[in-house]
From TrEMBL:
Gene3D superfamilies: RutC-like. Residues 7-144 form the Endoribonuclease L-PSP/chorismate mutase-like domain. This is Enamine deaminase RidA (YjgF/YER057c/UK114 family). It holds the Pfam family YjgF_endoribonc. InterPro entries: Endoribo_LPSP/chorism_mut-like, RutC-like_sf.
Length: 154
């Protein structure tokens, strides 16, 4: 018998928070047939952005990876709100990771690993995904990272 997503979350010491409400004129997720697309999630923790600033401009790689992990936790919160049960996830198809970066910073892929590694751990084989990691000059609320996800629904 395989471990459930809830079991893996508990083993990792992670509690999925309530899904954040949209901050502007958009919806937090869209379900279309067997596809679930989340809006970009910020590294929110305790109701505020936990990691702000730019990678290569004061934010360490480790803090960037922590921000990406927090974004991934918030993606799971949106998936749970959309689906009711995370076990309904068939597969994580793709992550798009936006990293607020100083011009000389070129390790966006390493920042994105904070989310990719966490989701692979929690979702198991269902968590293996395609990915883009993109450096951008700024993100909403000075967040260091923002991530959107696309899932196949089982």
């Amino acid at each position: 018998m395989t471990e459930s997503i809830a079991d893996r979350l508990a083993a990792a010491g992670v509690t999925v928070p309530d899904a954040a409400a949209p901050a502007a004129n958009y919806v937090s997720f869209v379900r279309f047939g067997s596809i679930l697309q989340t809006s970009g999630q910020l590294p929110m923790e305790g109701g505020k952005v936990a990691v702000t600033g730019k990678l290569g401009g004061g934010v360490s790689l480790e803090d960037g990876q922590r921000a990406a992990r927090l974004c991934a936790i918030n993606i799971l919160a949106q998936a749970k709100a959309a689906l009711g049960d995370l076990e309904t996830i068939g597969r994580l198809l793709k992550l798009t990771v936006f990293v607020a970066s100083a011009p000389e910073f070129t390790e966006q892929h390493k920042v994105a690993n904070g989310a990719s590694d966490f989701l692979a751990e929690i979702l198991g084989e269902r968590g293996r995904h395609a990915r883009s990691a993109v450096g951008v000059p700024a993100l909403p609320m000075d967040a260091a990272v923002e991530i959107e996800a696309m899932f196949e629904i089982a």
